[in-house]
Amino acid sequence: xxxxxxxxxxxxxxQHAENPVDWYPWGEEALTRAREEDKPIFLSIGYAACxxxxxxxxxxxxxxxxxxxxxxxFINIKVDREERPDIDGIYMKATVGMTGHGGWPMSVWLTPDxxxxxxxxxxxxxxxxxxxxxxxxxxxxxxxxxxxxxxxxATTERTLxxxxxxSAGDGANAGGVDPATxxxxxxxxxxxxxxxxxxGGWGSAPKFxxxxxxxxxxxxxxxxxxxxPRNILDKxxxxxxxxxxxxxxGGGFHRYATDAEWLVPHxxxxxxxxxxxxxxxxxxWQVTRSNRFRDVTxxxxxxxxxxxxxxxxxxxxxxxxxxxxWVADPDVLSAEWxxxxxxxxxxxxxxxxxxxxEREKRIKPSLDDKVLTSWNGLMLAAFAEAGSTLxxxxxxxxxxxxxxxxxxxxxxxxxxxxxxxxxxxxxxLNGYLEDYSHFIEGLLALYQATFEYRWFAAARDLADVMIxxxxxxxxxxxxxxxxxxxxxxxxxxxx
Length: 495
What we know:
The chain is α+β, with helices and mostly antiparallel strands. 51% of the residues lie in helices and 9% in strands. The protein has 18 helices and 11 strands. The chain has helices at residues 11-14, 28-37, 51-61, 64-73, 85-99, 134-147, 149-170, 184-193, 211-218, 228-242, 271-288, 291-307, 330-337, 341-359, 373-389, 393-409, 433-450, 453-470; strands at residues 23-25, 41-46, 75-80, 106-110, 116-120, 269-270, 318-319, 367-368, 371-372, 418-422, 426-430. The protein has a 5-stranded mixed beta sheet, sandwiched between helices. Helix 5 crosses helix 7. Residues 482-490 have low confidence and may be disordered.
């Protein structure tokens, strides 16, 4: 029998609708029952593309014995972190504070008033690699709740203090920024110091693209006195585009590489990653005139149009084995083979096209078909800017269609934004600050690309709503609406 998740909009929650676990979505029904029955809460947070979320679901949440233990001892709540980043953010701080690391699936046990007292990420069905089994954790925590409540109370108090310290650190610079920390040369120096000169990018395995750092470098490429921005930008973007993290057949970047060489990807493509990287490669083409960077921009956007676009104009949240990568640039190959470079490029394009057609015959990865306002705003800006810069009318039409879709479906009658839309349930969940800011940015990018006044007017109207709902009295903005009355360091806002 389906549980309470069966009527939810989130594809992630719907994946758990047939679990024997008596899941609740986050909301007053579950929280009230926990308080009335004096039962602790088991909070499980993940997202549809999360590999280990699927593993834990299969090993534990689909298991009758495990489900019975959860149902007997806890009120069980499932949350999609992409729909509710507010809840995820609060309890991620608690998880990191308790364990020293975070990740998904995130498993947090709460008192009935939502204060965390134990946390972790993935738990295996049997003890291994120093990790206790999930059933053993359940039994131990259930026993502690009934027999050692004073220890749980002490733990929640320590956790609350730690979360207050983290929150204080987050807001330490809210009153202003030291100008020395934003000196361009100092930032370039920091980026250069930690740059991976062998493979491009920063850090080791797992290795993530860093679009904001790359954007910064693109804006300082023309500094004649410092060649480092151009060198770091070119090395990083070329290595990423040639590596397995980039889909050489279908276009688009996977979320990160599992190695330092960008070769082996974590097989999921996120809309917000590709939106940011499309603009990075576009801006890099503008300042370097590297045709490879221009081509990557086009391939990303063409992939999104082909596989991640709803017929009404919205963009889906993700799509996710052969690992193809460039072993040498076409210019190098043409020199080795003594063949015209354009002939090599044509041959490579034909090979990639044939391989893509063969791959299309396979069963495709699953698709998270929800539309998130904030991520769509990022992709809207990418399409608008690319359409104008590359003189590509179909990109501008995609941007117009997306903007119209969001304005038609994601706004309430009083002008507020909703966060998520699905074909099944339409739009729901009040928008967060990021939904307003990213969508406003996308609308302004579309206005700059087309000079069609309606996009500017819509951006201005949304900015008025954003200021009214999110502005803090002492300056700055809240992530969530100021209308909430239950927010504390451990309690998620009511809205």
